Amino acid sequence: MTFLVANWKMNPQTSREARHLFDMIVDLGRLKNVETIICPPFPFLSVFGSPKSIKLGGQNMFWEAQGPYTGQVSGKMLKDLGCDYVILGHSELREYAGESDEIINGKLKMALKCGLTPILCLGEREGEEMGHVLSAQLEKCLKDVAKNQIEDIILVYEPVWAISSGIVGSGKPCLPDDALSASLFVKKTLSVLYSRFLAEKIRILYGGSVDAQNAASYVKEARLQGVLVGGASLDGQEFSKIANSLNDLT
Ligand code: PGA
């Protein structure tokens, strides 16, 4: 199964537009080889009814279960709204909300406790050394995560320098060969932290300026288990093309 995650970020601006975009892509749920996961802003999670074949995910959540935490959303709330997944550790939250690896670790453990599959984003900034950053992020974000839960996590290699401004074609995507090297590095690190067996089983996706032209190369050439799409997921036609190109591969 290939994973296709749509990260809508802080778009669109009205529930009417969100519904319209969702209606354009809801049919992708019939694709046999692709699991499509839509991660809209929190207020729109409940406007799609209970889609059966398309999965829903949150873009963030809090590390505590409930209580006096103004502005936060719990894992249980996401579950209650039909989410199976939650994106964690996105570089934009690291940048704008000062999210640290320790905070992400707390959120990840709470997500697992709530029965959500964490989609954990990792990646270096421009000028940083990929291996150095990935090993530190993996070690800290996965601290105290039990061996038997590692398989429940999806990792995304999302180099910060590859993320687009939201406009299709505006970014600088990572070459499939480089995404493959990063994923091999992730597996090597996990085999030291856990075991070779688990490292081989973990699902790794690529994110950063994915569009209909390049999506399939990350699965075919980089041998990854799917892609996470930002800007191009806001264009129903482009996103459908991505989904179909992935479906045709397997
Ligand atoms: P992008 O965003 O596809 O627009 O580069 C990816 C992401 O940041 O989730």
TrEMBL record:
Gene3D superfamilies: Aldolase class I. It catalyses: D-glyceraldehyde 3-phosphate = dihydroxyacetone phosphate. It holds the Pfam family TIM. This is Triosephosphate isomerase. Its EC number is 5.3.1.1. GO terms for molecular function: triose-phosphate isomerase activity. One of its GO terms (biological process) is glyceraldehyde-3-phosphate biosynthetic process. One of its GO terms (cellular component) is cytosol. InterPro entries: Aldolase_TIM, TIM_sf, Triosephosphate_isomerase. Belongs to the triosephosphate isomerase family. Homodimer. Keywords: Cytoplasm, Gluconeogenesis, Glycolysis, Isomerase. It is found in: Cytoplasm. Pathway: Carbohydrate degradation; glycolysis; D-glyceraldehyde 3-phosphate from glycerone phosphate: step 1/1; Carbohydrate biosynthesis; gluconeogenesis. PANTHER family: TRIOSEPHOSPHATE ISOMERASE (PTHR21139:SF42).
